[in-house]
Structures are given as C-alpha cells and as structure tokens.
Design goal:
- The protein is α/β, with parallel strands linked by helices and 202 residues long.
- It is 34% helix and 16% strand.
- Helix 1 runs parallel beside helix 6.
- The radius of gyration is 18 Å and the shape is globular.
- The N and C termini lie far apart (39 Å).
- 30% of the residues are buried.
C-alpha cells in the first residue's frame, strides 16, 4: 500500500463520522468478462468488511439473459470472508446472507412480485387491505437490506437496481471501471460517504 493509500485508510478509520453498515456496488456482465474481475470482487468483499460493513450487496446488470447461467455458476464459485447468497432474475428466495449478489433481478420486477404476494394474501382474506404497511412489502423482497452507500463504477447512471431499498441510499459514481477498481477507489467512496449529511428523505 502506497503513502496515499495509507493516508486515505487512516483518515477513514480516524474520522468522527461512521462508515456505512451496508454497502452495494453496481457492475455489469461486461465488467465480469474482464481478466481478474472476479479476483477484484473477492478483494472488494475484504475491503468492505475491513472498513466496517456488516452487509455487502453486488448488483450485476445483465443485457443478455442467456449469460445468466454462466454468470451464476461463476459467482457461486466466488469466495468471500462471509456467507454469499446468489440470486438470479427468476428467484424469489430471500437473500439474508452477509454478502448478497443479484444477477439481473430488476428492482421493478422484485417490487411487482412483492406487491403480487400482498394481493394474493388480501384475496385469500389472510390480510386486511387497511393493515398493509411498508413491512408487508419489505418482508417479500428478495433482497431485504437497504444499502447506506451504492457505488457505481464506470458511468454516472444506475440500472434497474433495488428501487425500494435504495430510496435513501447515498450514491457514489466513479469513472474508474471495475477492472481498474482499487482499494484507494473504495476508500474514496467511504470518505465521500463520511463527509455527507444524510437526510433520509427529510
């Protein structure tokens, strides 16, 4: 680690502001075709937990659905410092692991499926419409964690990503592509988060 990296690490660790508990990163299937991309992912998990994260989420934006099975096999072979749960576009199983990976599961689809579940319970008279609240939606989401910080590499735009969960997240965009993402880039994102005043919609 160079002098600048040590400086960033020290500022991050000694800052009065807290580091994010829940960190998400948005990458693309094309990013994962680059040499060393999965090694970067494994290293990223280590950085996140080293600097205080309790949960880490990875959203892989997918253009070609035919690539999903291959991506899933590769991502299920990734190792991390904590348990990893990988979910694909058609999954409805809840991902409660400390590391959660979404492959092309769009936020709109996830939210619509949760609403369908609520409607089915109302139709079966198991739930009174007047009693429906946010918890009824959240308990049906595949990814239950609300990220404090969302990091998007490579471009200043988000995909169809965790629409419900990320409504109050802090967004950090970097021009650095995933293949070149280094610890200093992660620490810059954390420092940016620490310097912000979170309002949670207020």
């Amino acid at each position: 680690m160079g002098i600048y990296d040590r400086y960033l690490a020290a500022r991050t660790q000694w800052a009065d502001q807290a580091t994010p508990d829940n960190v998400a990163v948005v990458i693309t299937e094309r990013d994962l075709l680059e040499q060393g991309a999965y090694d970067t992912l494994e290293t990223f998990f280590g950085w996140a937990f080293e600097y205080g994260a309790e949960r880490v989420m990875v959203y892989v934006s997918v253009l070609d659905e035919g690539a999903v099975p291959t991506l899933r096999r590769s991502l299920e072979d990734v190792t991390g410092p904590r348990e990893i749960a990988v979910r694909g576009p058609e999954d409805d199983r809840r991902a409660d692991a400390p590391i959660q990976v979404s492959i092309g599961l769009g936020g709109k689809h996830e939210f619509a499926t949760a609403v369908q579940g609520v409607a089915e319970e109302v139709d079966a008279s198991d739930l009174d419409p007047e009693d429906i609240d946010e918890d009824d939606i959240e308990e049906r989401l595949v990814f239950p964690t609300d990220p404090d910080l969302v990091i998007k590499t490579g471009a200043e735009r988000l995909s169809d990503f965790m629409i419900w969960q990320s409504v109050y997240s802090e967004l950090y965009f970097t021009d650095v592509n995933w293949r070149n993402f280094r610890k200093r880039d992660y620490l810059r994102a954390i420092r940016d988060f620490q310097d912000r005043q979170r309002r949670f919609g207020r």
